[in-house]
């Protein structure tokens, strides 16, 4: 039942944006009774929060390609593809995070969880001597992926895989040379 | 008159956010008659667009500190300070850009204009041999400033000047080593 409801939230958000979300629309789309949706989630922001929390419960693991360059490129391609899908659930969730403080918090928890799962890849790179000991995994991940969000979300520009790769390599060079 | 109206838009947006913006509120705050505001701007999004266009008409020039490292650090500190002000007009405008496609376009024009003005700093660095000929100014600027927006706007984390400096240095290392 939770999966049906959250799939409906994701679909409505992606197709029509935050303004189209309502308990009624989610109930209709999911086939779950309105009263049930109201009782369990209570509000549109809480539906978004649960959608993001569901994302954070998956079994995603950092790439392990054998080099930090390969790992960062794999992460950046994943982010690039998510931001370039048309329509993009990721873009829809980011836009919604500016409407709902609860959704913004959930999105930040989601990202914090992803960075935490990437720390092992950075540690492997430290062990291999690719970056200095003490390299901050969060800062490296933000340096690699931050330009993708700026480029695609705030600047609204198309983003190729080659560009995503270049941002990954530049972030690595920054960390390796620091 | 334009300056009074746009100052009122900026103040209302920064203090209370996009939802508080209305032609009436702007007229009241600026002391300009509602009919005049309606006739000249027509809608809240067009007020935002004009505010951003005003920003793009200023005489801002890229820093010229003698090194690209210094120039990028100066740019990053400026962005960091704008994103860290409390309240922050920049954050308010970014949030509003998710509500109004016209405002999003105006914000993108504003950034494109800033990058264009920074191209001369990158060219100076190419001439000094600090980065390779053919270095893409936009990509370098996005690599330097993108992490600040991600860090501060999307992740909602506090951002120190040292962190802003580190992102600038990392972007330069990425460009110099590419």
From TrEMBL, chains A, B:
GO MF term (any one): transcription cis-regulatory region binding
The answer to whether the entry has keyword Protease is: no
Q: Which residues bind DNA?
A: 22-41
The chain positions of domain HTH tetR-type read 1-59
Query: InterPro entries from the entry?
Result: Homeodomain-like_sf, HTH-type_TetR-like_transc_reg, HTH_TetR, Tet_transcr_reg_TetR-rel_C_sf, TetR_C
Q: Keywords in UniProt for this one?
A: DNA-binding, Transcription, Transcription regulation
Keyword flag Transcription? yes
- What is the protein's given name? TetR family transcriptional regulator
Please tell me the species this chain comes from.
Actinorugispora endophytica
